[in-house]
Amino acid sequence: MRNGLQLQRPHSWSLDPGGVVFTASDIAEVTGGELIHSAPPGSVTTDTRTLLPGQWFLALQGNNFDGHRFMHEAQARGCAGVIVSAVSLTGQDEAHGIILVDNTLQALQRLAQNVRQRYPGPVVAITGSCGKTTTRTMTGLILSALGPVHQTAGNLNNHVGLPLTLLELPPTAAACVLELGMSARGEIAVLAGICKPTLRVITNVAEVHLAGVGGTLAGVAEAKAELLQTARPSDTLGGEAGLHTHLELRIREAPGAPGTALDVEVPAPGLHLASNAAAAVAVGLALGVPVPGMAASLARYQPTGMRMRVERVGAGITILNDAYNASLMSVQSALQLLREMPAGRRHIVVLGDMKELGPQELVAHVAVMRDCCCQPFDLVALVAAAIAKYHDQKEPQ
């Protein structure tokens, strides 16, 4: 196989309904693969369930699955061709393309990196222990003042999701905003190498994903700092926005203070949102978004999924839904938020697991249970196995 990534094209490309279109020879050149059977150009997908006729199917492999098992299904659904690391030519016809690569995950990442190399616009990479999705969503809203923004959908923020996001990047996007997640050391470095951001934001560092970084907060900090390893002198770096006086952009309540005042009303509760909004504003300032319009953009923000979502239902009932995979910091912020809400209503808390905490799993879950037991909540609903098994513990055993 060849080294790949030699393909150079102008800063423009075509899209079909599935994403960026590659010719068969382009796929082979970028991935360093062998073109066994050619086929018409098309975008690339890894999922036969959503495959569109004319797309190329890339067969990913994992610990518990092998996409090669679905190669014939992809062909039956009308794929243009398949990108595989193992193939038997017995029974294969030349109606479908075949490209043989050494490693299909690496091939996917190389294709995404190639799209990034051709994209001339700004790429914002956001990581951190908490607030990635919120900050990414707010950043997308602010940058929409410049034109269409392409950004991470849902939780597609890992070694597969980020490349898939780039493979749908329109060449005309005003900006690309990407969320970078991690479970272990080295993963942020890989993602940053693929997306080569021009603006990098670390929202915060907390005791999250401890299992993959040696079980320490210092390990988390080192893993998040991988985002900075490939930073260039012309890049913009951003960190957590807070109350510290040395920050160029900070949150403060000080009428008449020097500087530019921006009054923002975010239609969701929680002081932590102010920090996320400040980080998004900093990105907007770096990219020249007019300040007056930022407040209107942030006013369109809505919480996503089951992340600190507050709902008022029925006769005097307030439900705080934080059942998404969370961290100790985010759960404690959620509980504090509910404590600060007006009395006179029934307060119900819905909590999910805090995953990948390693040796700190017991301590963190017991801390949350202790916090819940000390508060005047009417009901605490535990919807996941890990947190439920600690519900009757007040002290670590």
Automatic annotation (TrEMBL):
Residues 308-383 form the Mur ligase C-terminal domain. Residues 126-233 form the Mur ligase central domain. Residues 44-114 form the Mur ligase N-terminal catalytic domain. InterPro entries: Mur-like_cat_sf, Mur_ligase_C, Mur_ligase_C_dom_sf, Mur_ligase_cen, Mur_ligase_N, MurCDEF_CellWall_CoF430Synth, MurE/MurF_N. It comes from the Eukaryota. The chain crosses the membrane at residues 277-299. The keyword Transferase does not apply. Keywords: ATP-binding, Ligase, Membrane, Nucleotide-binding, Transmembrane, Transmembrane helix. GO terms for molecular function: acid-amino acid ligase activity; ATP binding. PANTHER family: UDP-N-ACETYLMURAMOYL-TRIPEPTIDE--D-ALANYL-D-ALANINE LIGASE. This is UDP-N-acetylmuramoyl-tripeptide--D-alanyl-D-alanine ligase. It comes from [Myrmecia] bisecta.
